Amino acid sequence: MTHQLKIVNGLVYDGSGGEPIRADLVIDQGRISAVGTGLGEARETIDAAGCIVTPGFIDIHTHYDGQATWDDRMEPSINHGITTAIVGNCGVGFAPVRPSDHDRLVRLMEGVEDIPGTALHEGLKWNWESFPDYLNALDAMPRTIDIAAMITHDPLRVYVMDERASFDAQASDEDIARMRKLVREALEAGAIGFSTGRSDLHRTADGEWTPASEATANELTGIAEAFHGLTHGVLQAVSDFDLQRSEEAFPKEWEVVEKYVKAGGGRPASISLMQRDLAPNQWRDILKGVEKLNADGVDMRVQVAPRAIGVFLGLQCTFHPFMGHPAYKAIAHLPLEERVARMKDPAFKAQILSEKPDKVAVEGSSVPPIADVMLEAMEFVAEKLFMLSDDPDYEQSGEQSIAGRARARGVSVWEELYDTVIARDGKELIYLPIYNYTEMSYENVLTMMRHPQALIGLSDGGAHVGTVCDASFPSYLLKYWTQERTRGERIALPRAVQMLTSDLADFLGLNDRGRIRVGLKADLNVIDLDNLKLEAPHMVADLPAGGQRLLQGATGYRATIVAGEVVVRDGSVTDARPGRLIRAGQQMAMAAE
Fold first, then answer.
1. How far, in whole angstroms, is CA 283 from its chain's centroid?
2. Angle of helix 336-343 relative to helix 346-354, nearest 10 degrees?
3. Which of 389, 414, 425, 523 could make an SS bond with 83 (beta carbons 3.0 to 4.6 A apart)?
4. pLDDT tens, 191-228?
5. Which residues contact 518 (CB under 8 A, 6 or more apart)?
6. What pTM value is reported for the model?
């Protein structure tokens, strides 16, 4: 028998967390058909000498809800070994929707997830109204990787409550019953879960809070009851626990979260976990709450990141330090090249450095108030601003910060910032780790990742495209935490692979992937780990309508395989498009058979 594909001479990490084995693999009809030696001939053979072979990586927290309807490449996730991505996080999405609400949902996604509205308007086909219709639209388009979709709270609320769906409106019992019915319909059609967002930082492009941000516990529990009797589906939530209003709000908001996940009929749930500077110990309180829920029989997890969650600042980005300065605002409309030419003029530089910035979080703007707080406290914030250069280092010390560099040069923080943003012809990026870097180290990140209820997530792939590029999390975890870290303990490679594969597959109930095992889906990575390296983030203008986004590549991926087809070969995306929509419940049942 001649097999479809054979991988030879690799060190196989099967995703279970155990030690690797030296073995070959053969693939037929998109599944792993044998693991061992002497496995016969194949139409194509990949020599994995010097490489590790892993299951394909899973990303449980992306925002490709729009991009997946027009983009078959699915970058940047495909560049980092991801073979399955979950869309529909944080309560924002595009279904169900009436034609009259298209613009409203675009404005919502543009504000919350920093995806250009012009790109969404041009890219979205809107060939759906119901959530099952949306799944059919996703299913109709082949792509490099598999995706699964959650039904999201904000569009659901808008669809049911129409003009009454503003953040401070309470849903009636009839509204809740209808939302529950639509969620059940979505789950039965293959939705992999339901998500809600409760963050003060999430605003529409018009500066309004999101429709579901103030939903009551009664509304959330009523919706969660849609899961009763089902054997698939997860619940997801993001919340900042009203931190901008008061640190004392945590117990009340946590009570809402508790009621929500307990009402989910025993289905697993997750919530985002990160360390916030304004409440540096709140993450520990969240973990205590999660531990109590698990003791009460609720499968509650925390989604954690393998590094700081930060933003990039620069003249090409959504934000930069001079966006509120009057002199800069006068040239903000100019092309980058012309802006940089003006900014290189010593007189213009002196003018800007003599000014105080205007407020940027004005009424009607999606810019969160924290942006003005940071601009006002720039002397302090600059202690946590870093250049990443061509060899990105995300765990730097204070001496390497913009403030440290300013002290070394004997200039002000603002002058150091100015000289940095115009470097490389205005294409230089400054990294600001907003979360998970309060103590300027990753010791707390390590503690989070090692918690038994932790799941690697929060990459936000496809979102915050003008400020963030964290879809590279898998490459970072695999390289930095297993080989490169010198400032503290590392993570064993078998465990790192497990965190990116079977941990996530098991949580989602995807029993056809996440491990290298005969009969499972042939989603695999062949990685030259010794030469795995993150490239510097860079801005490209490849979204519909010429919209910009940050991309970050990596070297070292010999091959990424989806359903037995090579979608990445030596770092380059191929023409293969085996990726499909996962219909939760339906495909899981087939896999179990």
1. 19
2. 80
3. 523
4. 999 999 997 666 666 667 889 988 999 999 999 999 99
5. 32, 33, 34, 35
6. 0.94
